[in-house]
Design a protein that fits this description.
alpha+beta
Length: 198
């Protein structure tokens, strides 16, 4: 019994030391899979609201994000819509506008999968072959501007981005270019968002 108690106490002490050591290491260096920032976005053809995490890749030449988007019934006028998006943003250049502020024109594209019941990846059997193209996957193109602020004495949040974008879905753009019924200006929409860096 004494050996068992001694063993349990040793294990507890060892796990405490390991967890403490891991905490001190994680402050200095995080694992590769931990996102560089978390994002929240309103609108932008990837959900009324979308949230997720992102990575700054290739010396901050590419920001790549995995997002979950949601459109409630009252906004979709149909069922709830659930979306999974991979968003890729390219900073065009960076311009310092103060000690802690940077403004950056941005451009990019997304790939979105509708995982709800409102769309399909293969044509339902009730339609003749080739009648519709799959509606579950969409691509968007966007451009805009981002303002980044670094915090002088970060405790948890190192910095924050605020951004505004204008974009369109590939099918909307095709309709605007292929028909005279849709004006090009009508297929673009705006979105706003924020990134928090940890």
């Amino acid at each position: 019994m004494k050996i068992r108690n001694l063993f349990i106490i040793s294990l507890l002490a060892l796990s405490f030391n390991n967890s403490y050591a891991q905490d001190t290491i994680s402050v200095k260096e995080k694992s590769w899979y931990v996102p560089d920032y978390v994002k929240a976005q309103f609108a932008g053809n990837i959900g009324l609201v979308s949230v997720g995490g992102g990575y700054q890749l290739f010396s901050e030449v590419l920001y790549s994000e995995l997002l979950y988007g949601f459109v409630p019934e009252w906004a979709s006028k149909a069922n709830n819509i659930h979306l999974i998006t991979i968003k890729n943003t390219f900073p065009i250049f960076r311009k310092k506008i103060g000690k802690n502020l940077t403004i950056t024109p941005i451009a990019g594209f997304t790939t979105t999968l509708d995982i709800g019941t409102n769309s399909f990846t293969t044509l339902p059997s009730i339609y003749p072959e080739g009648y519709y193209v799959p509606t579950a996957v969409h691509f968007t193109l966007f451009g805009g501007a981002l303002i980044h602020r670094d915090f002088k004495k970060p405790k948890k949040i190192k910095g924050v981005d605020f951004y505004l974008e204008f974009g369109t879905v590939e099918t909307y753009l095709w309709y605007a270019l292929a028909t005279k019924e849709v004006d090009l200006i009508d297929v673009f929409s705006a979105d706003i968002g924020v990134n928090f860096y940890f």
